[in-house]
Amino acid sequence: MNRQPNAPKRDWVRVKPGERSSATAMNEKPEYDDQKLLTLLQSAKREVQGLRLIHLHMSLLKDKSQLDLISIKRAMQETADQSAYLQLFSLSNDDVIVLYKGIKFSLISDVCSKIEKLMLSRTSMVKRNPYGEDSLYSIMELSLNFVNVIRFIEGLARENGPDASKAETKPPITLEELGKIERAVQMFDLSPFMLNQPVVDITNGEQNQFEYFELYIAIKALEERLSPNYDITANKWLFSYFTANLDNSVLKALNYGVDFLRGRRIGLNLNLSTIMSASFVKFDERLTADLRGNVILEINKADLVENIDTYKEVVDFASSKGYQICIDGLNDFWVTHMDLEYMACDYAKIFWTDEMDMMSDHEFEVFSEKIRAQSNCRFILARCGSVSGLMFAEKAGIQMVQGRIVDNILRKGVLLRDAIKSAKMMND
Questions:
Q1: Is residue 383 part of a domain?
Q2: How far is it, in rounded angstroms, from Cα 181 to Cα 232?
Q3: For the region Disordered, what residue ranges are annotated (predicted)?
């Protein structure tokens, strides 16, 4: 080998025996690692503890080139010397999967953030990633997401070639198309699209304690069924109008039976205008005082800000009837600067993002102090796509969590407290 004796270690491992150099790879058709990764995971499914996975959603970029993959390999290679294990896989849909072990989360998050900034400085993402996040990358514990990763890779093999999964931006919904959807919804069975997701208290070390179940409509699934050629959410005004009408359809469906409320607390995502409408009055009339106490009215912060007078009416109405209120869609800035005690809400739901893990010590202290200072409002960290969100919640004093990773842990029959404890041990 013509290796320079003083070359840095990372240069020695950049091109392994049997691999092509970067320059050669740029001029040839790339080889994909779908089957290689699938075989590795299937053979090592009992030995994934401690491994983490980075999913770089390159397929969602509007424009990309082979140079992007070279840039990613170079960025990841610079962290390889600090890891117990790191291996990169190029998938047939242009995504990149990285398996690694023994690297602090802050370091790997910093590398991923730099890759994201580099890519988004010259192009854009066509939609959210498969985990519902506005991020080019996702970092997760492999052991807690093993089945989902296997299904994702197997799904690539069923698609029609490398270009099948490339997303195209759909046009915003038109008023005419919205009218067609509204007419269809009136005669449509919404039950297959009505989902529920638990909000779980992480302070209980004996069992997974459910605070309540958020009942919601899978908008994108409904869009694919009723209007596959348009983006319902693209036009803010029309989407708000659509959800107001959808609320009425949900309440109408709930009016057929309220027995599901017995022994279970639910959260309803509703517009303020819906809560003050005749449809909600009809729903309310079917509930006893005890059942009303099992309903949490989830109100989005944007709706609140735009209709503050209506919100005050809703607060008075909820107080008199026994409903509870959750302000939905907050971020760390809103929590730090909003007087939630004055807003008279029982719950406040914060949407988790990786950027929250990058707060300075001062920012985190101010944020966590605001959490501790609220005596009447309980906080929920929602949209937790990785164990990192759960660890942040515990560190910040947030008692309740919600999201995809929570669902995965519950399906495995694992205590959230145990999952957080294991993740902290691996992160140290």
A1: yes
A2: 10
A3: 1-25
Q: 53: Cβ–Cβ under 8 A, 6 or more apart, which residues?
A: 97, 98, 99, 100, 139, 140, 141, 142, 145, 149
- Cα distances (angstroms) measured from residue 146 to each of 152, 153, 188, 349: 10, 11, 36, 28
Which is more confidently placed, 271 or 338?
A: 271
Q: Report yes or no: 72 and 91 within 8 Å, Cβ to Cβ.
A: no
Q: Give the end of a domain, one of 95, 126, 159.
A: 159
Partners of residue 87 on adjacent β-strands: 99
CB atoms within 10 A of CB 220: 15
pTM exceeding 0.70: no
Strand-pair category, 295-300 with 266-269: parallel
Is residue 359 helix, strand or coil?
A: coil
Confidence of residue 159 (pLDDT cuts 50, 70, 90): low
Structurally, the chain folds into a number of domains equal to 2
Tell me, yes or no, whether 60 and 184 share the same domain: no
* Residue 151 dihedral angles phi and psi, to the nearest 5°: -65, -40
Could you give the CA distance from residue 136 to residue 114 in angstroms, rounded to a whole number? 11
Q: What span, in angstroms and rounded, lies between the C-alpha atoms of 350 and 114?
A: 25
Same domain for 408 and 286: yes
At residue 236, the pLDDT reads: 79
- Which region among 196-205, 233-242, 292-301 has the lowest average model confidence (pLDDT)? 233-242
> Is the same domain home to 231 and 181?
yes
45-66 in b/e form (b: 16+ CB < 10 A) is eeebeebbbbbbbbbbbeebee
From the CA atom positions of the chain, what is the Rg in Å? 24
Pairing of strands 96-101, 209-217: unpaired
The DSSP element (H or E) to which 156 belongs, if any, is: helix 142-158
Helix (H, G, I), strand (E, B) or coil at 190: coil
Residue with tokens 């991020």: 135
Could you write out the DSSP letters of every residue in 20-32? PPHHHHHTSPPPP
Which residue has tokens 């992160």?
Answer: 427
Calpha distance 210→323 (Å, rounded): 18
Q: How far apart, in whole angstroms, are the C-alpha atoms of residue 395 and residue 150? A: 31
411 in a structural domain: yes
Pairing of strands 194-201, 137-141: unpaired
**CA distance linking residue 321 with residue 37, whole number of Å:** 55
- What mean pLDDT do residues 118-126 have? 87
Sheet-wide strand order for 137-141: 85-90, 96-101, 52-56, 137-141
Neighbours of 416 (CB within 10 A): 25
